[in-house]
Amino acid sequence: MQRSSTEIAVVTGARRGLGLGTARALAREGLHVIVTARDEQRAAQGVAALRSEGLHAEGRALDVASDDSVDAFFDWLDDTHGRIDVLVNNAGRIFEAGRSGTFEPPAALLLEAIDNNALSAYRTIRRALPRMNARGYGRVVNVSSGMGALTDMGAGYPAYRASKTVMSAITRLAANETRGDVKVNIVCPGWVRTDMGGPSATRDLDEGVASIMWAARLPASGPNGGFFRDGKRIDW
Fold first, then answer.
1. CA distance 83 to 80
2. What is the C-alpha to C-alpha distance for residues 121 and 227, in angstroms, rounded to an integer?
3. How far, in whole angstroms, is CA 47 from its chain's centroid?
4. What pLDDT is stored for residue 202 in this prediction?
């Protein structure tokens, strides 16, 4: 059984956008990056983009909305690499088509968004955190949005907002279960010009990735269980 001595980073939803940008930044720092997406073909697209730049990466299918898929992925990770050092929970999407009124979407849409955007992080943290605690090191970064902050809760996009608020609760719960030099934080990368953010977004990809990388590479003296943008704590 081959076991890795290089730091292993897992990035969910890494086919494009912030996920791919984060995978690229981690690979440039010398980590072995596992690019994940809902199926092998999508993961392979992300890997091909990184390898075309001379970076080392590996692709793997990971459907974060499926308990079975997450369990199978971590079983494979144990057998193949035997460790996980960085987990970036980036996978997610906006479920509302346009700026629908707060109470227009059916409750089922909110449940679907919470399952996809928040419980996805719960599923991966549930498997990653014991492994990090056992080794005494790990960084978990949950990619969120200020739209989920209760102090800045506006109208519209109820499914997306609710899902990100639940992710905040999961982050706090996980941070209280860490041992040794293990940290779980939540990051708002800002409104970034990606396929999801659109061309009118106020930030470029590098700015969004920099926020995520700050939390992914925190020193031992860094914070645990906080909500950050650009390395600065923001309100929940």
1. 9
2. 15
3. 17
4. 64
What are the residues whose beta carbons fall under 8 Å from the beta carbon of 231, sequence distance 6 or more?
Answer: 211, 214
Q: What is the pLDDT of residues 200-216, one digit of tens each?
A: 766 767 888 999 999 99
Q: Which residue has the higher pLDDT, 101 or 235?
A: 235
CA distance 59 to 35: 5
Please state, in angstroms and rounded to a whole number, the distance separating the CA atoms of residues 35 and 40: 10
Q: Are 116 and 40 in contact (CB under 8 A)?
A: no
> Tokens 């994940």, residue?
36
Query: Which band of pLDDT confidence, cut at 50, 70 and 90, is reported for residue 17?
Result: confident
CA distances from 192 to 21, 27, 78, 198 (A): 11, 21, 34, 8
With a cut of 80, say whether residue 161 has pLDDT above it: yes
Question: In 10 A of CB 196, how many CB atoms?
Answer: 15
DSSP, residue by residue, 119-143: HHHHHHHHHHHHHHHHHTEEEEEEE
- Residues with active-site annotation: 160
Measured CA to CA, the distance from residue 206 to residue 194 in angstroms comes to 11
Residue 10 has pLDDT above 50, yes or no: yes
The pLDDT of residue 1 is: 35
